[in-house]
């Protein structure tokens, strides 16, 4: 066995042999390998597992990245990052995939590794296609094509043709798309690259779904399926089975369409890829809706929504835009550094010119002295003096111009810094708004859209309608609650929103909020107690405090069982007032206490499986901080929770508040 390992290590390309099994690679992993060979072995294991277990492929790619970074093997790290980016793509983690490919491109350019550069350009083009940015996709794919032709990278060029086919298919130019897919397949047959050939054949068959004779796509799809079965590429197998199902559906053979659709879904589940599961579930939902089996159609619609929430494509688009902007900002900074270096070189040249002028002036002076000594000519001295003065004037004019340019450059730099700071603040607020809206409002409206699509097909039974609308009612109630919270928070964030300080009667504010939730408490048999005295007042912003108290009481009802109790009371402290909202509910787990009030929000179901949005406590904390207040929580499992809101006492509190005007603090 040792001789076998030694012989393998002596081969320079041992890790690229196609007949190497995973078991033999794992055996080599425990051998005494060199640094570069160890990184290459992890890369090869990642490639092998890309067919069957994408999570293992991701782990081995990450190990290769870490080892290459540790050993400072730049070209190997770039190669490993390309594999890691592919794994993120298959798992539907587009933002992380984009970051990997940008870093891979940077390292490959440093190492002058054209093969990896072409692969990175191709991968970036594919990534931008996934997030619907056609302009950027075409840009990077053209870069990949130009470089691949220049260095005669046939495999890289075939991938370029495949990517171009995908882009033209997206633009509904199906004949052009098929032409590029066919070019890619022809090149890959000559190279003997079955894995890439299977992808091109799949694309050639799939595009026929949109052409006049979809049945002509079946031979390509079945050939791709045969290759995938041979090399055990389960990732592509699921998609190919789905395309076959769509062709049979168009041909009117619903039995075969349903058969292949279920096979596609089964293989998608085995891959554990949210992207694959989402595509297969969409196909089954559509087929069952066409057969008027609405219960199963809705079942797969729920799976689609669940997987789309995991993918969160809109959020990833924002992340991808941020990563792209960061990459462009880095390029801009590099250009600025180069510009600064050029400016420094220019300044150095100017200093040398000034020194030359000074030296020239000295020489002129010496010549003048010599002329005085030799010729004793007053006229000659006058002429020389005039020349020296003219040279000195020219030097002063040049110095003033240089100083003026420096001042202008500094002023422009300060203006750009201020503008960048403002843009970052506005962009951060915009991203937070879009992330919340895309993540939380999308699900109920997708469900509503799916139900409306089902209703269009044919009238449904009363039982079916009641089942669907009961489910939708719960989702819409949760979305309305989230929207109300979002509107309060957005109003507080927008420019022009003011904090309005005025005397607020805490007892009255608590009473109003308890009355709003009284019916909900009665449904669960919960007792509400207002233990605040009538005279308790404080100077604060009523709208922000009102939102906080209402949210805490609603949460308390949600997590308190029948027969429980919720109370509101106050505690006077030296420099602040504390409002306590206590319940006898199920309490909060210790590991979840630290997750409250943070932006990576989470939610748990109530005692009657009530759902929440995860926004409330985060917004409470942010609104309270805007008025110099704070919030804490104490909880014990099975014994309930107590939330404390601390409000600062103002010196103005000693005045007669009822005779004071309202104070607006911008």
Automatic annotation (TrEMBL):
Originating species: Adhaeribacter swui
Recorded coiled-coil stretches: 304-351, 388-419
Transmembrane segments: 357-375
Lineage: Bacteria, Pseudomonadati, Bacteroidota, Cytophagia, Cytophagales
Protein name in UniProt: histidine kinase
Domain Histidine kinase, residue spans: 436-651
Entry's EC annotation: 2.7.13.3
Keyword Metal-binding (UniProt): no
UniProt cross-references to PANTHER family, sorted A to Z: HISTIDINE KINASE 1, TWO-COMPONENT HISTIDINE KINASE
Record InterPro entries: HATPase_C_sf, HATPase_dom, His_kinase_dom, HisK_dim/P_dom, HisK_dim/P_sf, Sel1-like, Sensor_HK_Regulatory, Sig_transdc_His_kin-like_C
Keyword list, A-Z: Coiled coil, Kinase, Membrane, Phosphoprotein, Signal, TPR repeat, Transferase, Transmembrane, Transmembrane helix, Two-component regulatory system
Catalytic reactions of this protein: ATP + protein L-histidine = ADP + protein N-phospho-L-histidine
């Amino acid at each position: 066995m040792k001789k076998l390992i030694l012989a393998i290590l002596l081969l320079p390309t041992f890790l690229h042999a196609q007949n190497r099994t995973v078991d033999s690679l794992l055996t080599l992993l425990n051998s005494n390998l060199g640094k570069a060979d160890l990184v290459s072995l992890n890369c090869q294991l990642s490639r092998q597992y890309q067919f069957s277990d994408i999570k293992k492929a991701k782990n081995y790619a990450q190990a290769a990245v870490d080892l290459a970074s540790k050993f400072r093997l730049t070209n190997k790290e770039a190669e490993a990052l390309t594999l890691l980016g592919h794994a993120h793509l298959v798992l539907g983690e587009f933002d992380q995939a984009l970051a990997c490919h940008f870093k891979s491109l940077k390292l490959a350019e440093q190492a002058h590794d054209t093969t990896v550069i072409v692969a990175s350009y191709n991968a970036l083009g594919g990534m931008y296609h996934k997030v619907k940015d056609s302009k950027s996709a075409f840009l990077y794919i053209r870069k990949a094509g130009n470089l691949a032709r220049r260095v005669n990278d046939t495999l890289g060029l075939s991938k370029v043709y495949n990517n171009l086919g995908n882009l033209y298919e997206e633009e509904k130019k199906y004949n052009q798309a098929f032409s590029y897919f066919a070019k890619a397949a022809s090149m890959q047959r000559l190279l003997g690259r079955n894995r890439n050939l299977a992808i091109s054949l799949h694309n050639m068959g799939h595009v026929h779904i949109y052409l006049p004779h979809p049945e002509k796509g079946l031979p390509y799809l079945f050939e791709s399926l045969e290759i995938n079965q041979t090399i055990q590429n389960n990732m592509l197998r699921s998609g190919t089975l789905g395309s076959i199902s769509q062709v049979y559906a168009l041909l009117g053979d619903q039995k075969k369409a349903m058969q292949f659709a279920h096979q596609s879904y089964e293989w998608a589940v085995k891959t554990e890829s949210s992207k694959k599961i989402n595509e297969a579930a969409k196909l089954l939902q559509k087929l069952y809706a066409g057969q008027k089996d609405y219960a199963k159609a809705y079942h797969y619609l729920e799976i689609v929504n669940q997987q789309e929430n995991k993918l969160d494509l809109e959020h990833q688009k924002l992340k991808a835009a941020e990563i792209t902007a960061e990459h462009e900002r880095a390029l801009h900074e590099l250009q600025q550094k180069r510009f600064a270096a050029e400016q420094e070189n220019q300044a150095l040249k100017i200093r040398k010119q000034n020194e030359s002028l000074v030296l020239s002036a000295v020489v002129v002076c010496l010549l003048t002295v010599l002329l005085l000594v030799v010729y004793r000519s007053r006229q000659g001295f006058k002429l020389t003096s005039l020349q020296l003065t003219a040279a000195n004037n020219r030097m002063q004019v040049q110095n003033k111009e240089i100083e003026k340019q420096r001042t202008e450059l500094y002023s422009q730099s300060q203006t750009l810094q201020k503008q960048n700071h403002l843009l970052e603040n506005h962009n951060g607020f915009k991203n937070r708004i879009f992330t919340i809206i895309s993540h939380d409002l999308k699900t109920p409206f997708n469900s509503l859209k799916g139900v409306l699509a089902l209703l269009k097909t044919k009238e449904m039974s009363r039982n079916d309608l009641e089942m669907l609308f009961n489910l939708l009612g719960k989702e819409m109630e949760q979305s309305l609650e989230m929207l109300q919270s979002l509107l309060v928070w957005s109003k507080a964030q927008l420019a022009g929103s003011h904090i309005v300080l005025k005397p607020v009667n805490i007892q009255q504010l608590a009473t109003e909020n308890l009355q709003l939730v009284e019916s909900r408490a009665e449904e669960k048999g919960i007792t509400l107690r207002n233990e605040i005295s009538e005279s308790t007042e404080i100077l604060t912003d009523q709208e922000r405090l009102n939102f906080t108290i209402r949210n805490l009481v609603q949460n308390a009802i949600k997590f308190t069982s029948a027969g429980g109790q919720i109370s509101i009371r106050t505690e006077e402290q030296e420099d602040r007032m504390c409002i306590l909202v206590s319940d006898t509910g199920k309490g909060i787990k210790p590991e979840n206490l630290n997750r409250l009030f943070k932006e990576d929000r989470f939610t748990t179901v109530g005692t009657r499986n009530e759902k929440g949005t995860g926004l409330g406590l985060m917004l409470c904390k942010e609104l309270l901080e805007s008025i110099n207040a704070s919030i804490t929580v104490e909880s014990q499992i099975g014994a309930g929770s107590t939330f404390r809101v601390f409000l600062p006492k103002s010196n103005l509190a000693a005045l007669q508040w009822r005779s004071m005007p309202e104070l607006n603090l911008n």
